[in-house]
Automatic annotation (TrEMBL):
CDD domains: ATP-synt_Fo_b. Keywords: ATP synthesis, Cell membrane, CF(0), Coiled coil, Hydrogen ion transport, Ion transport, Membrane, Transmembrane, Transmembrane helix, Transport. F(1)F(0) ATP synthase produces ATP from ADP in the presence of a proton or sodium gradient. F-type ATPases consist of two structural domains, F(1) containing the extramembraneous catalytic core and F(0) containing the membrane proton channel, linked together by a central stalk and a peripheral stalk. During catalysis, ATP synthesis in the catalytic domain of F(1) is coupled via a rotary mechanism of the central stalk subunits to proton translocation. Component of the F(0) channel, it forms part of the peripheral stalk, linking F(1) to F(0). F-type ATPases have 2 components, F(1) - the catalytic core - and F(0) - the membrane proton channel. F(1) has five subunits: alpha(3), beta(3), gamma(1), delta(1), epsilon(1). F(0) has three main subunits: a(1), b(2) and c(10-14). The alpha and beta chains form an alternating ring which encloses part of the gamma chain. F(1) is attached to F(0) by a central stalk formed by the gamma and epsilon chains, while a peripheral stalk is formed by the delta and b chains. It is a single-pass membrane protein. The gene is atpF. It is found in: Cell membrane; Endomembrane system. One of its GO terms (molecular function) is proton-transporting ATP synthase activity, rotational mechanism. InterPro entries: ATP_synth_b/b'su_bac/chlpt, ATP_synth_F0_bsu_bac, ATP_synthase_B_chain. This is ATP synthase subunit b. Residues 47-81 form a coiled coil. Its main location: membrane.
Length: 169
């Protein structure tokens, strides 16, 4: 049937087949060491880099989200502080307004009191001047009526009597 030296289908000698198999195995070993190893290492490195990039992107995304939340919180705090500053400014303005109104009211009251006091003083002065004028006219009329000149002491006594008479009425 078949001989040891040939293969049945192709009639290739076994020595050539063994050489081809050994050559093929040697070639596979060389390819594994020279080509497959570096290619596999390169592919593994690339897979690790992609994995690291994805992890880094996830970390960066998480940091961005945290930063966005922090900025939103700071914005809310800033708005609250701004609202407080506005409220404080309004309160301060109201307080100053109240103080100014109170001061103006006090000054107006003081001016009114002074005016009233001055008016009363002017009234008293006018009444006193009117009394003196009336007394002088009365003395003049009386001396013309009596055709006699009164002395200064007599005039003063007459004036005082006339004034006291006016005051009792």
């Amino acid at each position: 049937m078949f001989g040891l030296t040939t293969l049945a289908a192709e009639k290739i000698p076994i020595g050539n087949s063994v050489f081809i198999i050994i050559s093929f195995l040697a070639l596979m070993y060389i390819l594994k060491k020279v080509a497959y190893g570096p290619v596999t290492k390169t592919l593994d490195d690339r897979a690790a880099k992609i994995s690291n990039d994805i992890d880094g992107a996830e970390v960066a995304r998480q940091e961005a989200e945290d930063l966005a939340v922090q900025r939103q919180s700071e914005l809310a705090d800033t708005r609250q502080k701004a609202t407080q500053v506005v409220a404080d400014a309004k309160a301060s303005a109201q307080k100053q307004s109240d103080t100014l109104i109170s001061t103006a009211s006090d000054r107006a009251t003081l001016i009114s009191q002074r005016a009233q006091t001055d008016a009363e003083k002017l009234k008293e002065d006018a009444i006193l001047n009117a009394k003196n004028d009336v007394a002088a006219l009365s003395v003049a009329i009386a001396s013309k009526l009596m055709q006699k000149e009164l002395s200064l002491n007599d005039q003063q006594a007459l004036i005082d009597a006339y004034i006291s008479d006016l005051e009792t009425k």
